[in-house]
Amino acid sequence: MPGGNRVGAVCADEFVAENVKLHRKHGERRGGGVWEVLGAVLTLLSAAFILLTFPLTGWMCAKVIQEYERAVIFRLGRVIKGQAKGPGLFWFIPWLDVIQTVDLRTVCFNIRPQEVLTADWVPLKVDAVVFYRVVDPSVWVTRVKNGYQATHTLAQTTLRATLGAHTLTDILTQRTGIAKRMEEALYTASRLWGVLVERVELKDLTLPVSLQRCMASEAEAARRARAKMIVAAGEVKASRALQEAASGLSPVAFHLRYLQSLSSVQSTASIVVVSLPTELLDMFLSHQP
Q: How many domains does one find in the chain?
């Protein structure tokens, strides 16, 4: 979405600006003296040689970088000042420069299922997926040896630490919030590597079989109790309706309703219907204490 792209670009710009401040504050000072002068002399001599033999050496000093790539150039072992080169065509000195190309596209990797013990001592297996991208190629190349492996290992440990601080109920009901907290923890730890963590999602939660059976039994018992409560409430409403209907009938109407109910009963071998006069029933009822 355009809005989402603008927000991501703003976050990336803020991220790079913050890293620049960190470089200025904690960066190592370049050594001066004879070696720096020697490097400048070699660079000038190489540039003069390239200019003198340009038709022959021009094709050796040109390199093309794709739109989604950036080139970090090491000249005599030091990173050239300024931002990484690219995209497009740029020039370099083949015998003095070493180029490392960095891909800026979003990388997605799956965290293999991790054995996690929750805060209420419930073991479960959890796997997740992480989306990140490099926003500062120079830091990505100079500060971490294997960025992909480091980010992958950091995501595994962060997943276990984040889920271990929550109960099983919280994990099942607050997956979005837990993923957001994990994303913030990854961002705080990996921003010094020039990485911007864009999204973290919990994929699957695997519970022990015995715990699954207990939860299924609990859910079934809750459903049965709810069904019985609904049936009981219906019977109460029906009895109240019958009571209200009977209170509005006259003795003659009540007697006719009684006879109609007897006629609707089917007499079979197992059912015997005996009709009694209502006066006899009234006499029995009147003699009851």
A: 3
Whether residues 170 and 200 share a domain: the answer is yes
Whole-model pTM: value is: 0.64
Give me the residues of the chain with pLDDT under 70, please: 1-32, 246, 248-252, 254-255, 258, 262, 264-289
Are residues 179 and 228 in contact, defined by beta-carbon separation less than 8 angstroms?
Answer: no
- Name every residue whose Cβ is closer than 8 Å to that of residue 90 and which is 6 or more positions away in sequence: 62, 63, 65, 71
φ and ψ of 131, to 5 deg: -115, 125
Distance CA 49, CA 56 (A): 11
Is there a cis peptide before residue 123, judged by omega within 30 degrees of 0? no
Domain boundary among 166, 185, 207: 207
Are 259 and 185 found together in one domain? no
In tens, the pLDDT along 191-228 reads 889 999 999 998 888 887 777 788 778 888 888 899 99
Residue 15 covered by a domain: no
Q: pLDDT tens-digit profile of 145-157? A: 888 899 999 999 9
User: Same domain, yes or no, for 92 and 115?
Assistant: no
The pLDDT score that the predictor gives to residue 69 is 92
Give the amino acid at 195.
Answer: V
Say if residue 190 is exposed, middle or buried (CB neighbours under 10 Å; 0-12, 13-18, 19+): buried
Domain that holds residue 251: 213-286
Q: Which of 181, 207, 233 is the last residue of a domain?
A: 207
Q: Same domain, yes or no, for 156 and 75?
A: no
Of the candidates 29, 34, 17, the residue with the CA atom closest to the CA atom of residue 136: 17
Task: Tell me how far apart the alpha carbons of residues 99 and 86 are, in angstroms, rounded to a whole number.
Answer: 12
Q: Which of 138, 108, 140, 112 is nearest to 125 (CA)?
A: 112
The overall longest dimension of the chain from CA atoms, in Å, is: 134
